[in-house]
Amino acid sequence: MLRHAKHHRTLKQNLALASSSAFVSGIINVAGLVSFFAFTSSISGHMANMAKNLVTQNLYEIVLFLGWLLLFFCGSFLSSFTVKSFAQHSAYRAHAAPVVLEILLLLFVAVYGSHFYEETKLEREIVISCTIFAMGLQTGLVAIVSGGLIKSTSLASLFTDLGAEVAEYYHIGTKKDRHIRNRIFVRLTVLAFYALGGAVGGFFFNKYEFAVFYFVPVILLLMLL
Hints:
Layout: H1 11-36, H2 44-56, H3 59-86, H4 91-115, H5 121-145, H6 155-170, H7 178-208, H8 212-223
Helix pairs in contact: 1-5, 1-7, 1-8, 2-3, 3-4, 3-5, 4-5, 4-8, 6-7
Keywords: Membrane, Transmembrane, Transmembrane helix
InterPro entries: DUF1275
Protein name: DUF1275 domain-containing protein
């Protein structure tokens, strides 16, 4: 899934990357919501919460939500910087490095949550920070590899792009181009697997709690094939 980038990718490769990355995002987001009452793969809610705390002048919460926003940014930045720096030597290794780091972070969450987590406020914030940074890594990498086509954590952006492309495809003056149709297929795949991942994440977290985070690295390993 990660051996080719942008215009060199086939529809099959994009669909595989879209389904796996969106499935992971869905699992992580719902598992985070169920366990911490916080979104971990979507940061729009954190921006809204930070704005709310600006109004109430809650300095601690302002710094916390700002920190989470910056962690997502840093994850995306690190992925992009790594790919840009090492793609000339080995595109596959450059693409794989952020995924390996994401796997390590999620394994840390799985191990710590399963064996050491005591539900303190500090622990909650640290675990959320790890998952947000991991999602930033994934989002930045997937966006670069797919040339901006796949956005596995931003449903607002997804629906915006999907609406525009469906309108373009069905417009009377538009030629029914296969390129547009393929982009629509990819975006619908992201939507479907994000929802499926959310359902799976919620169901299995209720049964196995943090052990569900052991399953996510397996999916990420498949992305490395």
